[in-house]
């Protein structure tokens, strides 16, 4: 039997899950989303993801359609179908279907709420060992990158350009500052200080980014939230990118040149170990409300 998808209050087989063509997500990309990893059947940092989801909704003038405990029940049901293997949840809310194709926001429209669980996209162990190759590109996105909007065309084109040029991610640059990747946040290490750009409308407030700073603080590793110029990126001792599925990845090539000695650095090794230990604690606790 095919897996069930949550759609507007019901759990239905994927092939039966349909959305009207007049849905504003389909017509305009008028919606927001989240990707949440789940280890041993438990969503990781769920509260933080739901908090960001609500901030994204507020950013597009929508109210949260569900409360945290309602989300918890839905996600537990989706995860339970697949047992305790590591998974990821995709959830999406669009403004919903309205009778007309109208640019302005209609007064009365019911949001479309959808979520499903799939196998976790795992990090490629070889890439973890070797480090990633990235290029810098002009940031061609809009000025509200703090909203996790489903409108991802600029990210897709930039990601594809990186792949076409033999890299695995693009670091997006605006006004000489490197802000984040197409689907990741950015960190550098400079004089043994861990640096990531401060939160602003130019980047997504990554859940992994925040966790990395929290782990650095707990372990007494010095860190700062400060802008990163292209020159600082090019002369960094280490570069990392972070995301919920890629976790903390070392970057060892930038625009075809090695980053420092071209190998994952010692600070990355420390942070990767801290991150892995943090996930292991969730597995041990194993309670839905643990994170
Ligand atoms: C543009 C962008 N920045 C940063 C991130 C990392 O966010 P998180 O750590 O919450 O997965 C993502 C994740 O997909 C992203 O799309």
Q: How many angstroms separate the termini?
A: 31 Å
**Mean pLDDT across all residues, rounded?**
95
The hetero molecules present are: pyridoxal-5'-phosphate
The secondary-structure class comes to alpha+beta
Q: What would CATH call the class of the largest domain? A: Alpha Beta
Task: Report the radius of gyration as a whole number of Å.
Answer: 20 Å
Given as residue ranges, the uncertain stretches (5+ residues, pLDDT < 50) are 287-291
Largest β sheet strand count, sense and barrel closure: 9 strands, mixed
Order of helices and strands: EEHEEHHEEHEHEEEEHEHEEEH
Question: What is the general shape?
Answer: globular
Q: Helical content, roughly?
A: 25-40%
| Number of strand segments | 15
- Beta-strand share of residues: 25-35%
What is the annotated CATH architecture of the largest domain?
Answer: Alpha-Beta Barrel
CATH topology tier name of the largest domain: D-amino Acid Aminotransferase, Chain A, domain 2
- The CATH superfamily of the largest domain is known as D-amino Acid Aminotransferase, subunit A, domain 2
Return the domain count: 2
Number of H/I helices: 8
Keywords:
291 residues; alpha+beta; D-amino Acid Aminotransferase, Chain A, domain 1; D-amino Acid Aminotransferase, Chain A, domain 2; 2 domains; nine-stranded mixed beta sheet; six-stranded antiparallel beta sheet; 8 helices; 28% strand; globular; disordered C terminus; binds pyridoxal-5'-phosphate
